[in-house]
Predict the 3D structure of the following.
Amino acid sequence: MNALNEIGLDSNKSAALAQKLNELLANYSIFYQNARGYHWNIKGEKFFELHLKFEELYTDLLVKIDEVAERILTLGHTPQHNYSEYKKISTVPESAQVSDGKKAVGEILNAFRNVIGLQREILSNAADLGDEGTNALMSDYIRAQEKMVWMYSAYLKS
């Protein structure tokens, strides 16, 4: 029989899942900082609309960063917190200063593609482990983010 962690899940599989969650944490952290930059630097005719949307986005990402870190701790592991590590493992690239709304929205859509793909992988791994807590978290994130992809995509078609 495999060793179990504090919440009754296989310790080895939980370690692998925590590693994937740390990748998600890195992606969210870079995405968060990018969204802050979009919010601060946006210019142009859609300033008021996008300024608020980007604030909503980075506020949501901040909540997710905390939830993912706490999930890693719940699994019995340590969340990464160094940006130098985040930059090494994140598939969301660090954004340069962006003031154009359409360019910012395009970068946001690319970031969502990265995190949604990773979350689907985490969802599959969590299901194999029987980890309903991580599974529920990823399902909620994916559902909400798919809607955001639709909405941001609609904006680009204007």
